[in-house]
Design brief:
This protein is α+β, with helices and mostly antiparallel strands. It has a single domain (3-161), classed as NADH Oxidase, CATH 3.40.109.10. Helices cover 37% and strands 17% of the residues. The chain has six helices and four strands. A four-stranded antiparallel sheet has the order 1-2-4-3, with helices on both faces. The structure holds flavin mononucleotide. Flavin mononucleotide (FMN) binds next to strand 3.
């Protein structure tokens, strides 16, 4: 699949089968994340791959629910077999943008592999709370790194059309 087709076909997947990702699929996703450009080629984005049955995800889910209620009504990663959590250097001002670029690279790579994905922002509350150092240690973030964004990836159990485009968000001068 070429990159234009992957962009056109990608949409958020919110239901997954139990089928795990292969090592090769995971490696393709890691490579896509690491291939993303970073400001001044800092390469300050770290990827933590977490299996869907790792208890740390249930812990994060419970913390999120205590903060915001159970939204989404299923778990935040929709039962996906893998969640990739991207952390980045807190002290570097371009880190949030670099993480966004990396996570989209991963989403497009997932689409190219025929997998589904959904970017996950809803765990920002717990992961940037006063328990952030605890989660950073549990998730193996490098020193001085903090949560930026996450993405669930797996085999699609539901299809969703890509979102409608708002062409008013473009002008040419
Ligand atoms: C920064 C960011 C955070 C997001 N966080 C969540 C989330 O926590 N839960 C979720 O279900 N979807 C989340 N999404 C997915 C968006 O809801 C989704 O991309 C948007 O509705 C457009 O739909 P599409 O991805 O199918 O085109 C997030 C997307 C972005 C870019």
């Amino acid at each position: 699949m070429d990159v234009l087709e992957a962009m056109a076909r990608r949409s958020s997947t919110r239901a997954y089968t139990d089928q795990p990702l292969t090592e090769a699929e995971l490696d393709t996703l890691f490579t896509a994340g690491l291939q993303a450009p970073t400001a001044t080629n800092r390469q300050e984005i770290h990827i933590t791959a977490v299996a869907g049955d790792n208890p740390i995800l249930a812990e994060i889910e419970a913390h999120k629910n205590a903060m915001f209620g159970q939204n989404p009504p299923v778990n935040f990663y929709y039962g996906a077999p893998t969640v990739l959590i991207l952390s980045g250097e807190n002290a570097f001002s371009w880190t949030p943008i670099d993480a966004g670029i990396a996570v989209q690279n991963i989403a497009l790579a997932a689409e190219g592999l025929g997998l589904g994905s959904v970017i996950i922002g809803c765990i920002k509350g717990p992961l940037t709370s006063d328990k952030a150092p605890y989660y950073a240690e549990k998730l193996g973030f490098p020193q001085g790194y903090g949560y930026q964004i996450a993405i669930a990836v797996g085999h699609k159990a539901a299809e969703k059309e890509p979102h409608a485009l708002d062409r008013s968000k473009v002008n040419c001068i």
